[in-house]
Structure formats: C-alpha cells, structure tokens
Amino acid sequence: MGHFDIGHFDVGHFEMIDLLSVIDACTTDRAAGRLVSMGKAVEELRVLTGDFVSPDETVANALSTVALERGCAVLFDEQPGADIVRAPWQEASPADDA
I need a labelling partner for 39 at 20 to 30 A (CA). Which of 2, 61, 66, 77 fits? Predict the structure, then answer.
C-alpha cells in the first residue's frame, strides 16, 4: 500500500507498525470492497500490545484512522448503532453524532 506520514495521524500512544499489522490481519475482502471490523481489530490490538486499559473508543479511533487511510470501509460493530458502516469516501456529519 501507500506510504504513511506518521506526523499527520493521531494514533495516540500506539505504534504505527502494530496498527498496520492489526488492520492487515483483520481486513476482509468483500464484493463491495475491503472491510475492517472494529470489534475484531480492537481485540487483536489489545492482545498484540497487552493494552487492556485504554478505552475502546481510543483504540477504535486509532485503528479506524489507519484503516480509512488504507482505503478500507470500517464497521463499528462493538457499540450502539453497530450496523453503521463508514466508507473511506464518506465524511462524518454532525447528524451522525446525534
């Protein structure tokens, strides 16, 4: 895939190599494109790093940033509204947060 400029990503205290490894391992190819389940990815990153303390939202935000940059759709399946899929070409709108 492409080159990442780590300076413009907000990935918290996580190592970029760990995030990339988890995204690559958790990406499934579907007819509509590449999809990453945040439920699975969050669990994988926790096991890989031993970080069972960071809030799920913090972990999912770091992972989804990398997944979207890699052109994957992201399924937030470990929270209310789990049926919402956000694709890389979609921008978040204030109505999404309501």
Answer: 2
- Residue 48's nearest CA partner among 6, 77, 16, 71 is 16
Write out the H or E segment, with its range, that includes residue 73: strand 73-75
Distance linking the first and last C-alpha atoms of the chain:
34
Q: How far apart are CA 8 and CA 6, in angstroms?
A: 6
DSSP conformation letters of 6-44: GGG---TTS-HHHHHHHHHHHEEEETTEEEEEHHHHHHH
Cα separation values, 83 from 37, 40, 80, Å: 11, 15, 8
CB atoms within 10 A of CB 92: 8
pLDDT for position 6: 46
Q: Which residues contact 12 (CB under 8 A, 6 or more apart)?
A: 54, 58, 61, 62
